[in-house]
Write a structure and sequence with these properties.
Mean pLDDT: 85
Number of strands: 7
Strand order of the largest sheet: 1-2-3-4
Oligomer: single chain
Strand content: 25-35%
CATH class: Mainly Beta
Structural class: alpha+beta
Distance between the termini: 15 Å
Largest sheet: 4 strands, antiparallel
CATH superfamily: Pleckstrin-homology domain (PH domain)/Phosphotyrosine-binding domain (PTB)
CATH topology: PH-domain like
Order of helices and strands: EHHEEEEEEH
Number of helices: 3
Helix content: 25-40%
Radius of gyration: 17 Å
Length: about 130
């Protein structure tokens, strides 16, 4: 079995929302960071030499598997708090991985696996 590499999801947006909720609304909007916490806690992004897997959902779990050879383009956006988004273009559709910690570094690691998969021409579809 091949080892998977997990991307970390940043907790910074939740902390920012907690601060906003406490100082600007006196705690009335603490439901927003609580909901964000459950969404982020139940989201996972991970990959190995052949595939990229996205798992999301609190009540309805959804899993999406993207073979690395199908990826056309990668784009990272990072803010001053060192978290941001990674956009994966997969043959006509764009998938956004939200709130990834250090997205530029994560994208570079993913690019290494992506280029390796293209060179090896790995085309094993995942069931």
């Amino acid at each position: 079995m091949k080892e998977y590499y997990y991307m970390k999801i940043s907790k910074t947006p939740i902390i920012i929302w907690i601060i906003i909720a406490l100082f600007l609304t006196g705690g009335l909007l603490l439901i927003v960071p609580l909901c964000m916490h459950f969404i982020y806690k139940n989201s996972k992004y991970y990959y190995n030499d052949e595939k990229f897997i996205i798992e999301k959902g609190v009540f309805n779990k959804e899993q999406r598997i993207i073979p690395l050879y199908r990826i056309v383009n990668l784009k990272a956006q990072q803010n001053i708090f060192n978290y941001g988004n990674i956009n994966i273009e997969d043959k006509g559709q764009i998938i956004t991985l939200k709130y990834v910690e250090r997205p530029k570094e994560e994208m570079l690691k993913l690019i290494d696996k992506w280029e390796s998969a293209k060179k090896q021409n790995i085309r094993n579809e995942v069931i």
